[in-house]
UniProtKB/TrEMBL annotation:
This is Argininosuccinate lyase. It comes from the Archaea. GO terms for molecular function: argininosuccinate lyase activity. It comes from Candidatus Aramenus sulfurataquae. Its EC number is 4.3.2.1. Pathway: Amino-acid biosynthesis; L-arginine biosynthesis; L-arginine from L-ornithine and carbamoyl phosphate: step 3/3. Keywords: Amino-acid biosynthesis, Arginine biosynthesis, Cytoplasm, Lyase. Coiled coil: none annotated.
């Protein structure tokens, strides 16, 4: 216990405001932030090289947040004081837990999002590879969950890929906004020490700083945007999960999910329950709940730091870990998914038939009612086959195998381009972080 002055000795009261348990998720990031702060104090001449070295060594040794502290920041500072002695107390200068936690959260979210973006690229690749195998595999499409028009499985998979790649782009741009440093902004108005905030930002691999110190210390809007986009991704994935449950059900039976993804019943041995997709569908809802919880905590808070912000922290990682686990499961699923050969309902050719009549000169509404009449009196037959129906589609984004081939090529190019921009971005971050290591290495030589 280092900061507490108001003196409650009641465990229940202390525990109520402590973030020790949830701080484990950001332990490594908090240490990195402290290292950058110590280096900056040294570069400013506030502390000697020897003190900087002693403190950095103590920071690196810090592994455990003991109970009884308010949070990781207090525990770390106390650890430094114990290891280094009074000189260690310099770390409290020009710094607040407010700017340190805000910085650590952004660092952690950056890592999480980079991992998710990588995973999503792999998932996109799996889905596109599967699409390549199924360019002419007939497949049903639905509106209102009723059979609509014939399509191909590749066409469905291209839909899946586009849902993911659109989210990918938005998540990447949220990352770029998020990757700005709050460090050096103190508790709310900065400090009288001339910290170079841009240099601190560089050392931690940020793209720049959150300029205003009120915003830097107390805004969580970029964090919320990040999980909002992840939740939106989960919404799309959860709809796809629902499709897969439906299409693989033996009532419908167009898809067979890999054995790794289904589970039987303890009572009914014939069952192949699509359990992973059921969980995914539920987890989509959980992410909406997580997002709603953080939004509800955030809404109406006065600007400037409030402890309510601390209570939002654990929710961010709940969301990112759900997303990561979901992507893993989907990769396995799309690798092993199979289409079951099964006749499509030929009434789904009714639109093609009406369009054929219309393209031969009959106003569409008239053609539509003629075909409808035939369908209603069970006399509908079409001159067009299911295969031809798919080939007749003439617009971009449709299942026509020739058009789809083009779309597939474009999707692969987009995938390569995205993968390159992610690599470039990661390398940029790594090269910036290298600067912190150079100064740290120099400091570490002291006294050797
Ligand atoms: N543990 C807090 C958090 O995670 C940081 C502490 C800020 N506390 C304070 N009294 N200003 O947000």
């Amino acid at each position: 216990m280092l900061y507490r002055k108001w003196g409650s000795k009641e465990d229940a009261v202390i525990k109520y405001t402590s973030s020790v348990d949830s701080d484990y998720a950001i332990l490594e990031q908090v240490k990195k932030v402290m290292e950058a702060h110590v280096v900056e104090l040294y570069l400013n001449g506030v502390i000697s090289k020897k003190t900087a070295r002693d403190i950095l060594l103590a920071v690196k040794e810090f592994k455990e947040i003991k109970q009884g502290y308010e949070d990781v920041h207090e525990a770390l500072e106390d650890h430094i004081l114990t290891k280094v002695g009074e000189e260690g107390g310099w770390v409290g200068m020009a710094r607040s837990r407010n700017d340190h936690v805000a910085t650590a959260l952004r660092l952690k979210m950056r890592e999480e999002i980079l991992e998710i973006l990588e995973d999503l690229l792999e998932l996109r690749k799996v889905v596109l590879n599967k699409a390549m195998e199924h360019k002419t595999t007939l497949f049903p499409s639905f509106t209102h969950l009723q059979p609509a028009q014939p399509t191909t499985f590749a066409h469905y998979l291209m839909y899946v890929e586009e849902e993911i790649s659109s989210r990918w782009g938005v998540i990447f741009s949220v990352l770029k906004t998020l990757n700005r440093s709050p460090l050096g902004s103190g508790a709310i108005v900065g400090t009288n020490v001339r910290l170079n905030r841009k240099r601190e930002a560089e050392m931690l691999g940020f793209d720049g700083v959150v300029v205003n110190t009120v915003s830097a210390t107390s805004s969580r809007a970029d964090m919320i945007s990040a999980i909002a986009e992840l939740a939106t991704l989960m919404l799309s994935l959860s709809r796809i999960a629902e499709d897969l449950i439906f299409l693989s059900s033996s009532f419908v039976g167009y898809l067979r999910l890999p054995d790794s993804q289904v589970s039987t019943s303890s009572l009914m041995p014939q069952k192949r329950n699509a359990v992973t997709m059921e969980v995914l569908r539920a987890k989509g809802g959980e992410c909406v709940g997580i997002l709603t919880s953080t939004m509800a905590m955030y809404k109406g808070l006065p600007s400037g730091y409030d402890l309510d912000l601390q209570e939002m922290n654990s929710y961010y990682w709940k969301c990112t870990s759900i997303v990561k686990a979901t992507i893993e499961v989907l990769k396995d699923l799309f690798q092993g998914i199979q289409v079951v050969k099964k006749d499509l309902d030929s009434s789904t050719l009714a639109t093609d038939e009406a369009e054929r009549l219309a393209l031969n000169g009959k106003p569409y509404r008239q053609a539509y009612f003629e075909v409808k009449e035939m369908v209603l009196s069970d006399k509908f037959t079409s001159k067009i086959t299911l295969e031809e129906s798919v080939k007749l589609k003439a617009v971009a984004g449709s299942p026509n195998p020739q058009i789809l081939e083009e779309d597939l090529k474009e999707a692969l190019t987009r995938l390569e381009r995205d993968s390159k921009s992610l690599d470039d971005y990661e390398n940029l971050i790594l090269s910036k972080i290298g600067q912190l290591r150079v100064v740290e290495d120099d400091v570490m030589q002291e006294g050797l």
